[in-house]
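Handout, section B. The chain below has 297 residues.
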Amino acid sequence: MTTPALSPLEILGFTHLYSGKVRDLYAPDGRDDQLLLVASDRISAFDFILDPPIPDKGAVLTQLSLWWFDQLVDLVPNHVVSTDVPEMVAGRAVLVQKLDMVPVECVARAYLTGGGLREYVADGTVSGLPLPAGLRDGDRFDEVLFTPSTKAPMGQHDEPMSYEAVVAQVGAEHAEALRDLTTRILARGNEIAGERGILIADTKVEFGVDASGALVLADEVLTPDSSRFWPADQWEPGHTQPSFDKEFVREWLLSPASGWDKSSGEAPPALPAEVVERTRAKYVEAYERLTGLTFRS
């Protein structure tokens, strides 16, 4: 199998600019200060776009991000201008400010898992930050960690960055603000999600700089694509936690059932119908538990 080709829509009044792993970006004809951000149903894992897509995933990501932007508006401004978008992408697209994007993936971790766990087992650190001995898979950190990474082109791997490297990239003032905002977003997210029975283990957020030089929260925020969501009543450090996010897809790809060797360099196989259906259900359940709303595609 080869990675599926990206086939952006033709939208009257908009010019297609770029397609990423999940989102397609368009410029409104006659404007240079806004962009149309369209979330597709594509799903990616291990730097591959998988086949087939997950039905309604783009709408879940868009509507959940909009809900979270409202919960975080007192912490940081966001890029949303309007949800008044062409009918063909209604529910999964937003008009946003055009920003100068910060060239850093801003990652915050509240629990030890994933790539952070692998580094900790090998070196006793997470993104170079020394941690106490004896931590287990799923343990909660005493405070939220800022563990930034590079923004790699599609198909390449992001690499961990030290805080000093972030300072060198964006300057001391913006680096401090990025660290503060990223960790506060995850802390606020866990305050709200915890009341709804969900733990957010870690998250990745993106920022841009507006015309005034201010940092603005962009792209998506606290979604099943950008974060690890765990059911709070099943949290049990010492092993992999059940999840509401695309970790389910990653686990299937790494299981004998897929027949795929991650180290082969070959694209993963197509997802079975059962994996697609269960992944959609997990995304919708996360949306409904967090927001208290019924998902409507």
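Note. Residues 81 and 96 are 5 Å apart (CA to CA). Compare this with the example in section A.
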